[in-house]
Amino acid sequence: MPDCFGFGWALPSIASHANLMGFTTQKLAWGSAYGVPFDIGRWRGVDGNEIYASVNPHDYYFTLKKLRDWDFVQNKLKENEKYDLDMTYIFHGIGDRGGAPKEESVKFVEKEISKNNSNDIEVLASSADRIYHDIDENFTPEQKAKLPVWNNELVMKDHAVGGYTSRAVGKRWNRRCQELADIAERASVTASYLGIKEYNKSAIDVAWKRFIAHQFHDDIPGTSCQRVYKRSWNDYAVSMNQFANELEASASALALNMKTDFCKGTPIMVYNPIESQRQQTVTARLSGIGNKNVRVFDDDGNEIKSQVINRTNTYTEILFIADVKSLGTRIYDARVSDIPCDAESAVSISKNRMENQKYIVTLNPNGDIESIIDKEQNNFQILKEPVSLGLLKYNGSRVWPAWEMDYNENKNAADRIPVKSKMQIIENGHAVSHSRLHSVTKRVPSQTLLHFRTAENV
Q1: pTM of this structure
Q2: Exposed, middle or buried: residue 94 (CB in 10 Å: 0-12, 13-18, 19+)?
Q3: Model pLDDT for residues 402-446, shown as the tens digit of each residue
Q4: What sign for the dihedral angle of Cα 18, 24, 30, 35?
Q5: What is the 8-class DSSP label of residue 301?
Q6: In this structure, what are the phi and psi dihedrals at residue 419, rounded to the nearest 5 degrees?
Q7: Contacts of 315 (CB under 8 A, 6+ apart)
Q8: Do residues 251 and 161 lie in contact, with contact meaning Cβ atoms separated by under 8 Å?
């Protein structure tokens, strides 16, 4: 992995499950948040699975002019002796923009190889993965166990601090494409298996390939020029719409075949596309309601926490708490009523306090989040100190001002703390509560929105 701005802790776990053997990057030398943990060792993922890793192979566009007598190589060999490791690993060539090593670099390596018979250090020209095969096939279990282990993420300070958030809408839409692709795929396979809708392979394939084409550097990191995003963001939008169309078509086919004879009002099908049971808020738009209330019941006749959240001339929008099994569907019954929802609710709100069955959140007079108590953990206080939103004067990067942020400067304390001007409750219902805090600094007005959408989340 050449020009990447850090590596998440899930990567070795994913690589291990994909039967990959090793991981190599030189990027940590550009400013790792934790330094370079070792030369060659094992990287352990969040689930305990490991892969071999070489994380100090020098630069990726580099012409070799010295090797055996190079202090960088000598220091690595000396360090590796602690782990009974008698080898190290060096890059040469152009790994960022593509291209083989320069001719003079290749000639130098060949010259060094010719000296192997008369030198204690053997030089090999090999593929990037050979070292992992050598370790895996030739090392004893005791030798492998002695290799150093890194049990954390490998994030960057310099490029990464800005790159993680630069062109954030592209990152958001890329993730949304991934989610919609997965959801549409599951719904399409289900409908096809039941024989109620043909699987639209060509549409899903085209939408998938269109958006994954942008999962490379410098596109998705947000470090490219502006004109790149005119195309990539358009592609994201087109693919999202295609996936959504396939999802709607497949889910509609499923809905037409659901049992709804128990409903006294309007049947609403809720589809849960994830691999665990899910309890979450659902919104639906109903026509012909007028100014009346709507109450929602499940397939056992139990009333579900619900509320009306919006009315227009053409529809009434409701919100209710759905509980659907993994990869399942469930029918709910929305009934017009003269009275609102009467189901018991743990959600409550006052001027400076919000509560549901799991959390109690309290604001101080300045509007800062002063306290978050976890009721299910013996009223455990989650916060060590109040959470406040602050602003700091940031000079930025002169080299890459569009996306680079300076790590050390970004750690500075805020020099402006907003002062509360008004706190407002904007919604108080059986399923959802909102409050909005209007605050202002000397120059910048801001709003903070606190929102309880489900029974256990804030």
Answers
A1: 0.77
A2: middle
A3: 788 888 888 888 888 777 667 777 777 766 665 555 544 444 344
A4: positive
A5: S
A6: -110, 130
A7: 285, 286, 287, 289
A8: no
